[in-house]
Amino acid sequence: MKISGEIVTYNSKTFRNLFESLFPAMSSLASRVLQDENKGKDIAQEAFVKLWQKDNQDFEDSNALRAYLYVLVKNACISLIRKEKKITKTSIDDLILVEEQVFFNEVLREETYQLLRNAIQDLSPQASEVVDLTLKGYRNVDIAEELGVSINTVKTVKKRAYKVLREKLGEQYITILLTSFIHFF
Fold it and tell me: What crossing angle do the helices spanning 151-169 and 140-147 adopt, rounded to 10°?
């Protein structure tokens, strides 16, 4: 296959890096759509096998490859749901519309979380840990206790980390917040 004009073989370091960076997102997405982690991993793995089998593909860039994999995962999820629910041909159009909307929402969420995860990884180790614990639902007092620092340190680190995230993500920061809290609106 080619990505940005560069030939990528399936036993190369480039392909391995692509797999390692994209598999978790594809697996997570399929797992959420199917509500089954093992089936999600199987679907993601099958998508990479299909990619491997189509070695004549030419992708403009890594985003085109990512989009192609999302389509493979979506189609595989719909096929599995159709098979497991033994859906008739007459109800298939309704299923596809519903599943495509669910899938689109999950893709948007996964891409947003990926942006956030990447931005958090670029923070200092302490700031990254504070933000991670906050996202896990820890209160400031719990974070302070966990890290062995004062509450004021946690507040300061958190404030600085959020400022850096806002600067780094720009308008995407708002999208992340809205996506994270969409169930409240």
Answer: 110
Cα distances from 65 to residues 2, 85, 98, 140, in angstroms, run 10, 30, 25, 40
Residue-wise pLDDT for 86-133, tens only, equals 655 545 555 555 566 666 667 766 777 777 788 888 999 999 999 888
**Residues 6 or more apart from 161 whose CB is under 8 A from it?**
123, 127, 128, 130, 131
Q: Is there a contact between 155 and 161 (Cβ–Cβ < 8 Å)?
A: no
State the Cα–Cα distance between residues 167 and 43, nearest whole angstrom: 36
Computed from CA positions of residues 127, 129, 135, 141, in that sequence, does the dihedral angle turn out positive or negative?
negative
* CA nearest neighbour of 123 among 155, 164, 152, 151: 164
pTM above 0.85, yes or no: no
* Residue 170 CB-density burial (10 A; 0-12 exposed, 13-18 middle, 19+ buried): exposed
